[in-house]
Amino acid sequence: MTGSHPALTRRPGRLWVQLLRVGLAAARTTPGTRLRSWALLAASAAMALTALAFATTTATFDGRTQRDTARGPILTGSAQHATALWKEAIDSFGTSPHGVIYIEPLTPDSPPPPGLSRWPRPGEAFLSPELARAAEDYDSLDRYGHYAGTIDPQGLRSPSERMAYVRPAHPPADPTAQAWQYITGFGQFFPMNQDTYPHTAVETDGVIAVLMAVPALALLVVATRVGSATRDRRSQLINALGASWAHRAVINVGEAIVPAAAGTVVALIPAALLLATDVRLPVTGYIIDTADTRRAWPELAGALAGSLLLTLVLVVILHRVQRPKTATRPSMSSSRLPKWRLALCVVGVLAIAFSQYAPKGPDIAIFLAGTVLMWATLPSVVAQLCIANGRRIAASGYRKGDPGRLIAGRWTAAHPGVLVRLSVVFIIGIGLISHLQVWNSRLGDSAAAAQRITQRVGDTLYTIHSSTLTPDAVKNLSHNLPNGTHLLVATTHPEGDHPRIDLTGPCPDLQSLRLPCPDTAQRVTSSDPRLEELARPYTGNLTVRAVNGDLPVSQTNGSLIVTTDQSGHRAEIEKAAYAAHPGINVETPGETWVIGAQQKNKVNNWLSLFGGTGLALLLVAGLISAAAEFVRIRASLAPLSVLTGNYQVFRTIALWYLTVPLLIATALATFITNWHSLFFVISLREGRFSWPVLATAATGFSLAAVTIGLLAAHSARRAAPFWRPKAD
């Protein structure tokens, strides 16, 4: 190394060790090192937790695929080679659907499905643990027959899956007519009961990346630059001595290795929990199978090690020192803002604006790419505005002889990196809150509308449907229904310009609904909300006809109506229906819509889980960044009480240097979020934007900006009486 200091050229092996020791010593003695250590620990833990989430997602989906393959039926079209009959149906407890698998062995030596130690006996049912708990809550543990026990974990997609294996009390007389399928065993990939968690691994990783990884990286950026002034001066010194980028990197690694490793160790706690037992995720209720995580423990360990390595690499990359080509005085990269950030922000805005004109498909990709570019570079735009504003503040303070405004303005213009780190929390926080609201509104409106239907209808009218109903099944059902119930036939005619639904049944059953008893079909109008909802899909057209004797099953199109004089008979009605005909569906009017809407609405729980974690990380980043500025301001402003003779200067500087830029960030973020959310709604083609939510978020962050300025001034004022001149 030509022109290098001798200390940097002798014995390279000892040199690297010495540089590492310099970094370790700097971590103990540098001013503000305690705050930076805690910040790096939090950032490293956040990075490790995010890596753990990615690894757990991969392990979970791999395990789900394996179990789906192991339990999937091997279908055959030949009854001669079949070993069992198999049929899938869907049912629900409340608004939570579950799968019902009907099975009937044809050979005594055929193995049962994975998760069962034996075939169910006639009239028996095995339930998953989660379904068994739900059935107990609804007093319906015997809905499908005698409860024989629970399904073992190896037969479930996840421990939170709701599923039942049911064997009818009597073998089907005509399996083909009743939609049974012949199988030769189990062991073929056959996804079933997709409502447990219908999203793919790619979708889950995308949500984690946006809502967890980005805030974790923001926290790491803030933590890396905490107390950066002293480290920048040290880097300039060793740079002047001829140190290379590698030399500075070793020192930076030595300074960050202990807190970064400690943060990774903290993440071992949730990792150990995942390896020790099944973990129920908060908010969502989803249970992670410990068998999956144990099988993937090398990947989990590699994810934690990789997160530590990535943390250290980013610490090194984010601490860069520029060598000026013309000036002899060293300068740091934080003294100015790169122009390419502003250019990328413009590109992102243009991509969002023109995405609505792109073809369907690429328009979403263009919109998302523009969104990432805009939000990632918007803090630099805010910093650039604050720099220009700082120069005006300094000029105004100079003209009026106000030292507080003069110093605050010059600090604002000279430290754009500080403004970027402080504003990133405000900008991303406001945007994240508003966009979560838009996404939740997309899923929540339909659920609320569906819920209003169920509240209006109640539980005294049920639709019973099956495409394979037989006269014997209808007779068995009518005999097993509890007292106070009435059975009608519903025949639908959805085609044509005048769709309608016909109700047919004995006169007493029609009269229970306050309907007439005509011998021929007669159109009626009823104010009963149950009948109104029943006829709503057919533009309100309802006809009735009275019959004597047996119900005309041949005209049912698979639909029956059961009404009750009083509520509270659902469990008895469902038990009678499933005993009469396997695979039947029992529901109240609009219940299918309710269940579908609620299933979509459950996505909100996942967004709340990951989005809440991301907001918490952003909050930590904001607190750390603000605390770092408190430390720097306290040390820098303390001598001003001697020079100015009053303490008012502290509040003036803190408010103009911290509060005003953060208010600018809040105002710009509010405007951009309003504009961007409208494009978000257009891209989704559903949902709605809530001004009250945005106004609440903006108000909260504005109050936080004022609080940060006042606390910084208070911190400097408390430190002023203890300031003593030093020979520095």
Characterise the protein shown here.
There is one protein chain. Mean pLDDT is 81; it is low at 324-335. The chain is elongated, with a radius of gyration of 34 Å. The protein is α+β, with helices and mostly antiparallel strands and 728 residues long. The strands form 4 sheets. Strands 1-7-2-3-6-4-5 form a 7-stranded mixed beta sheet. Helix content is 58%, strand content 12%.
Distance between the termini: 32 Å
- Give the biggest sheet: 7 strands, mixed
Protein structure class: alpha+beta
Mean pLDDT, to the nearest integer, reads 81
Percentage of helical residues? 55-70%
Beta-strand residue fraction: 5-15%
Shape call: elongated
Helical run tally: 21
Q: What is the number of E strands?
A: 18
Strands side by side in the biggest sheet: 1-7-2-3-6-4-5
What key attributes describe this structure?
728 residues; alpha+beta; seven-stranded mixed β-sheet; 18 strands; elongated
Short description:
This protein has helices spanning 12-29, 33-71, 129-137, 201-224, 228-240, 245-276, 290-295, 297-317, 339-354, 362-400, 403-414, 416-457, 471-480, 507-511, 529-535, 570-580, 591-601, 603-637, 640-644, 648-684, 691-719; strands spanning 73-75, 84-93, 96-105, 124-127, 146-150, 163-166, 181-186, 279-280, 287-288, 321-322, 331-332, 461-465, 485-493, 500-505, 522-524, 542-546, 559-564, 585-587.
